[in-house]
């Protein structure tokens, strides 16, 4: 997994599983996220199913990357089904629902498959949308010219929205960078800075250093954001 050979790791996972050997939650979460990130959707779903059957707890990192990628290729009803499956199996407790909500709505927007009921469906499933999630949805409707829907979302934001916890996102992004899931870290960083939400200096420095190799333009935007905020650059 560390060497980005996730499909090879998946074959090993299957062999070990057949032998009845117990595989820890950290490895399983890294594998399900890595497979999804690398585009091995079917294999990631098989690991997901195995984790649910065995009662292996999901982490925010594992489930977040997995569901964030899946919502770009699956219908929203099926995404809700995956959340329900995790909750019904009792392996949801380690997941930060607000972060997952942001990843889902961002993924749906990127796939142009956003629906007005998304935020409420997530909220009733303990994936409480924070202000970032509401902003993503409101902007998407505004771009589509759906001003009535935009206004509805903004009203719900005032009633149900919560402030994003900078420390939670800090830990999540740093973990993404550590696991070499740079695309996911970049996309979330763009959501945070694009909405002018709080983000720590060390996170931005890590984003600039890691993202510059795959998307120099995005790294420049992070650099400009830091400059405008008079934040400290690390050498």
Descriptive overview:
With about 240 residues, the protein is mostly helical. The chain folds into three domains: about 1-95; about 95-165, no CATH class; about 165-235, no CATH class. The chain is about 70% helix and about 0% strand. It is built from 13 helices and no strands. α6 (about 95-110) runs parallel beside α8. The two termini are about 30 Å apart. The model has no long low-confidence stretch (mean pLDDT about 90).
Any chance you could write out the topology, listing elements then pairs?
Blueprint: H1 6-18, H2 25-37, H3 41-54, H4 60-70, H5 76-88, H6 97-110, H7 118-123, H8 131-143, H9 147-160, H10 166-178, H11 182-194, H12 201-211, H13 216-228
List keywords for this structure.
235 residues, mainly alpha, 69% helix, PPR_rpt, Pentatricopeptide repeat-containing protein, PPR-containing_protein
Quick description:
The protein contains 13 helices and no strands.
Order of helices and strands: HHHHHHHHHHHHH
Question: Can you tell me the residue ranges where pLDDT is under 50 for at least 5 consecutive residues?
Answer: none
Provide the residue-averaged pLDDT.
Answer: 90
Distance between the termini: 29 Å
Q: Count of DSSP helices?
A: 13
Query: What would you report as the Rg, rounded to the nearest angstrom?
Result: 18 Å
Report strand %: under 5%
Shape: globular
How many domain modules? 3
Keywords: Repeat
Family: Belongs to the PPR family. P subfamily.
Protein name: Pentatricopeptide repeat-containing protein
Pfam families: PPR
């Amino acid at each position: 997994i560390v060497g980005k050979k996730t499909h090879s790791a998946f074959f090993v996972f299957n062999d070990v599983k057949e032998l009845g050997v117990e595989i820890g939650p950290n490895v399983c979460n890294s594998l399900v996220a890595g497979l999804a990130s690398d585009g091995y959707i079917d294999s990631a779903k098989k690991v997901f199913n195995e984790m649910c059957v065995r009662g292996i707890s999901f982490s925010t990192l594992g489930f977040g990357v997995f569901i964030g990628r899946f919502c770009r290729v699956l219908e929203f009803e099926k995404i809700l089904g995956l959340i329900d499956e995790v909750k019904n199996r009792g392996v949801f407790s380690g997941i930060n629902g607000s972060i997952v909500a942001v990843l889902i709505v961002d993924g749906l927007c990127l796939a142009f498959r956003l629906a007005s009921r998304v935020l409420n469906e997530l909220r009733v499933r303990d994936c409480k949308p924070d202000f970032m999630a509401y902003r993503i949805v409101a902007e998407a409707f505004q771009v589509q010219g759906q001003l009535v829907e935009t206004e509805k979302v903004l009203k719900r934001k005032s009633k149900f929205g919560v402030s994003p916890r900078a420390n939670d996102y800090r830990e999540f992004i740093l973990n993404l960078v550590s696991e070499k899931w740079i695309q996911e870290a970049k996309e979330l960083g763009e959501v945070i800075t694009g909405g002018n939400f709080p983000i720590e200096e060390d996170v931005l420095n890590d984003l600039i250093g890691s993202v510059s190799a795959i998307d120099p333009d995005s790294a420049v935007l992070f650099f400009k954001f830091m400059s405008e905020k008079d934040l400290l650059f690390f050498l």
